[in-house]
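Our consortium's second objective concerns turning raw sequence data into structural hypotheses that experimental partners can test. To show how far this objective has progressed, the report includes one record in full. It was chosen at random from the queue rather than selected for favorable results. The single chain below, 122 residues long, was entered without modification.
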Amino acid sequence: MRIRMKDQKGFTLLEVLISIIILSVALLALAGLQIISIRGNSFGGTMTEAVTLARDKIEDLKKDDWSSVATGDDFPVVRGVTYNRNWAVQLVGHGQTKEVAVTISWDNGNHQVSLATTLADY
């Protein structure tokens, strides 16, 4: 009995190669998206740390004695990233309130977060 080409089932070598190429291109695109996602998550974590450092400093200044709240800076290191934390304090009004601005920068100043608040003397 002779087998005709129409009766054969399966894929040809060309179809398999084309499928592998399409799959490879799709997987490479997904790998690129994965790298972008990892970088975004890393930056988000760094940004969260910066905001936390700024909030911590504001809370520290709120706990300090009114007369000792003054401008300053420090360089905290969190998970291998060195942050430059500056806070500026200035009297406003009739000297019963102080405006405090805390600025956190990192990556040689390429990124920065600022928070501000007003402290009152009771």
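The partners drew two points from this record. DSSP finds one helix and six strands in the chain. The CA atoms of residues 50 and 91 lie 25 Å apart. Both points have been shared with the crystallography group to help prioritize constructs.
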